[in-house]
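Let us begin with a simple case.
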Amino acid sequence: MKLRVLSISLMTLLALAGCDRIDPNSPLGKRKAIYQQMLDIKEDLGGMLRGRLAFDGVAFASGAAKLDELSRQPWQHYPPVKEEQSDARDDVWQQQTRFNELARALEAETAALVAATSAQPLQPQDVAPAFQRVEDACETCHKAFRAY
């Protein structure tokens, strides 16, 4: 019995030692949490526009506002030097000007999405073009700077 408990304990320790845990309070952990929130909201908004979820104009406007708020937050969590664990390419740090341009472009598109939600009651066709521009801004930055 002691051998079994010792074996399980040892296996658990080895498994935990092998995990690439990200400190949630680290810059990487903070920006990953923000990006995850952005993705969750974007999936809900896209789901409403693509028929996966029922379209709710009030909920869409609220999600757009939250997405706009979040779009301004991850940039502060990029340290001057790249961390060892990162989903970002070295180019983020080597091409700061371009990276910052794309960050501002995303912020502009999320603000435009919020503006598109100002006329209630909303219809999907009223906000779909602005939402597509948000998705395009995300994709442009990911293609340039995310290491897949």
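The second case is a distinct protein. As before, the sequence precedes its structure tokens.
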Amino acid sequence: MSRHQKRLTIPVSWPVARKTSVWVPKSSPGPHSSQESMPLLMVIRDMLKLVDNAREAKRVLYEGKVLVDGKSQKDHKLPIGIFDVIGLPLLDQQYRMLKDEKGMFYLSLLEPGSARKLARIENKTVLRGNKQQLNLSDGSNKLAEGDYKVGDSLVLSIPEKDIDERIEFKVGNLAMVVGGKHSGQTGKIKDIIKVKSSQPNRVIISGDKEFETIEEYVYMIGTDSPVIKLGAAR
């Protein structure tokens, strides 16, 4: 299997030029699929423009100058996906990866200080001793007690990833869409339609306009207001 891919074949969600060179790094296996993430090298080179080329990017990473969710990362192919937090300690800056209304990734500049991570519960597993393991959208797992449900979002501290808050997947709470033609839009859930077939469940969201999307694209981001900043990078 190739360790690179042609720039012309990259996902439409990558906000990079497609004809400047032939090859780009291919994401390593990780918490996000290759279609829903970007390699860390391209985030710091092409989006943040901290370096001019891949060699400089690898050097910056090797020296531990870039944090992902509060931890130093040296793998230049590490997949960076929705809601991941990129930290630059030397510049005292932090960014959150989000998607805009065109379905393209962008980095939201966070306020100085501690940041928190948002992750969705993808499924639950009951372990020996009746312990509950939550499997999250960022690839991490958490042991937790309580009435957690698939589709709920957790607000996590970083780098510890302790659970600070739970946002329920229910009617009336605030949601953000991260895929499809309504990508980047936010609004309150008006209805959740459970489909008794192989088709995905549907969610009706009321924002500036009312629209419908599938459950897979919906992330809970708050009750009355977002718990994370959603603005674009400066």
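The domain at 3-108 is CATH 3.10.290.10 (Structural Genomics Hypothetical 15.5 Kd Protein In mrcA-pckA Intergenic Region; Chain A). The first strand starts at residue 4 and ends at 6.
Keep these points in mind for the review questions at the end of the chapter.
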